[in-house]
Amino acid sequence: MVVFAWVMGSIVALMGGISLVSFAIFIGTGIDLWLKRARQFRRYAFAAVLFWFNVWVWGTVMKILINW
């Protein structure tokens, strides 16, 4: 589970970083395409966080059920 958390954390950091860079490019240039990309990568980052949380919760539930 620790490896999964590190992988998901890396994915979230990568998507969040790309989103921030895209937003910075949008601020600098004013091209709307970069704002669209920033929003897209932000959504990917949120989806990855929600996926990680879901796996963590259900993993905990399975551990409890198995050890009960």
Rg estimate, integer Å: 16 Å
Largest sheet composition: none
Q: What is the average per-residue confidence, as pLDDT, rounded to a whole number?
A: 95
Order of helices and strands: HH
Q: Strand fraction band?
A: under 5%
- How many E-type strands? 0
Query: How many helices does DSSP assign?
Result: 2
Distance between the termini: 20 Å
Structural class by secondary-structure content? mainly alpha
- Name the helicity range: over 70%
Apparent shape: elongated
Describe the structure in your own words.
This protein is mainly alpha-helical and 68 residues long. It contains 2 helices and no strands. The chain has helices at 2-29, 32-67. α1 runs antiparallel to α2. The relative contact order is 0.15.
Question: What structural keywords apply?
Answer:
mainly alpha, 68 residues, elongated
